[in-house]
Amino acid sequence: MTEIAFGKKVSAAFKDKVITICDELGCDASFLMACMAFETGERFRSNTVNKVSGATGLIQFMPSTAKGLGTTTGKLAAMTEVGRAVF
Fold first, then answer.
1. Same domain, yes or no, for 25 and 1?
2. Range of the domain at 33
3. Residue 30 and residue 35: Cα distance in Å, rounded?
Protein backbone atom coordinates (compact mmCIF):
# COMPACT_ATOMS: atom_id res chain seq x y z
CA MET A 1 0.00 0.00 0.00
CA THR A 2 1.15 3.54 -0.76
CA GLU A 3 2.61 5.53 2.11
CA ILE A 4 1.28 9.06 2.54
CA ALA A 5 1.64 11.74 5.21
CA PHE A 6 -0.64 11.08 8.22
CA GLY A 7 -1.69 7.77 6.62
CA LYS A 8 -1.48 5.98 9.97
CA LYS A 9 -4.00 8.41 11.51
CA VAL A 10 -6.87 7.52 9.15
CA SER A 11 -8.73 4.41 8.02
CA ALA A 12 -7.65 2.42 4.97
CA ALA A 13 -10.84 3.57 3.18
CA PHE A 14 -10.02 7.22 3.91
CA LYS A 15 -6.45 6.80 2.71
CA ASP A 16 -7.58 5.00 -0.46
CA LYS A 17 -10.11 7.76 -1.21
CA VAL A 18 -7.47 10.48 -0.82
CA ILE A 19 -5.09 8.61 -3.11
CA THR A 20 -7.84 8.12 -5.72
CA ILE A 21 -8.83 11.80 -5.63
CA CYS A 22 -5.22 12.95 -5.90
CA ASP A 23 -4.49 10.53 -8.75
CA GLU A 24 -7.47 12.00 -10.64
CA LEU A 25 -6.32 15.57 -9.91
CA GLY A 26 -2.65 14.87 -10.57
CA CYS A 27 -1.46 16.03 -7.16
CA ASP A 28 0.47 14.53 -4.28
CA ALA A 29 -1.76 12.78 -1.72
CA SER A 30 0.58 13.81 1.09
CA PHE A 31 -0.09 17.47 0.28
CA LEU A 32 -3.86 17.00 0.60
CA MET A 33 -3.39 15.03 3.82
CA ALA A 34 -1.20 17.83 5.22
CA CYS A 35 -3.89 20.38 4.35
CA MET A 36 -6.60 18.31 6.07
CA ALA A 37 -4.32 17.71 9.07
CA PHE A 38 -3.87 21.46 9.48
CA GLU A 39 -7.56 22.29 8.98
CA THR A 40 -8.81 19.63 11.41
CA GLY A 41 -6.07 19.77 14.04
CA GLU A 42 -4.95 16.32 12.86
CA ARG A 43 -8.37 14.85 13.78
CA PHE A 44 -9.42 14.16 10.17
CA ARG A 45 -13.11 14.47 11.07
CA SER A 46 -15.66 15.77 8.57
CA ASN A 47 -17.62 17.46 11.36
CA THR A 48 -14.72 19.72 12.43
CA VAL A 49 -16.08 23.27 12.81
CA ASN A 50 -14.07 26.46 13.29
CA LYS A 51 -15.78 28.20 16.22
CA VAL A 52 -14.89 31.67 14.91
CA SER A 53 -15.65 31.45 11.18
CA GLY A 54 -18.10 28.56 11.02
CA ALA A 55 -15.91 26.87 8.41
CA THR A 56 -16.63 23.14 8.39
CA GLY A 57 -15.18 19.88 7.20
CA LEU A 58 -11.89 18.32 6.23
CA ILE A 59 -10.83 21.35 4.21
CA GLN A 60 -12.93 23.92 6.11
CA PHE A 61 -15.58 25.21 3.73
CA MET A 62 -16.94 28.60 4.78
CA PRO A 63 -20.75 28.77 5.02
CA SER A 64 -20.90 31.10 2.00
CA THR A 65 -18.71 28.78 -0.07
CA ALA A 66 -20.86 25.77 0.84
CA LYS A 67 -23.97 27.74 -0.18
CA GLY A 68 -22.32 28.68 -3.49
CA LEU A 69 -21.71 24.98 -4.11
CA GLY A 70 -25.37 24.18 -3.45
CA THR A 71 -24.95 22.70 0.01
CA THR A 72 -24.59 23.74 3.65
CA THR A 73 -21.93 23.34 6.28
CA GLY A 74 -24.46 21.22 8.19
CA LYS A 75 -24.70 18.78 5.31
CA LEU A 76 -20.92 18.72 4.96
CA ALA A 77 -20.54 17.96 8.68
CA ALA A 78 -23.04 15.10 8.35
CA MET A 79 -20.93 13.33 5.73
CA THR A 80 -18.58 10.54 6.63
CA GLU A 81 -14.88 11.15 6.16
CA VAL A 82 -14.96 9.25 2.84
CA GLY A 83 -17.80 11.37 1.53
CA ARG A 84 -20.97 9.39 2.06
CA ALA A 85 -23.92 11.27 3.47
CA VAL A 86 -25.19 9.82 6.73
CA PHE A 87 -28.44 11.78 7.06
1. yes
2. 1-42
3. 9
Q: What is the pLDDT of residues 23-61, one digit of tens each?
A: 999 999 999 999 999 999 999 999 999 999 999 999 999
2 — pLDDT class (breaks 50, 70, 90): confident
- Is there a contact between 50 and 15 (Cβ–Cβ < 8 Å)? no
Nearest to 56 by CA among 30, 34, 75: 75
Do 59 and 34 belong to one domain? Answer: no
83 secondary structure, DSSP code: S
State whether 53 and 29 are in the same domain. no
CA–CA distance, 32 with 25 (Å, rounded to integer): 11
- Cβ atoms of 57 and 73 within 8 Å: the answer is yes
Is residue 87, in this structure, part of any structural domain at all?
no
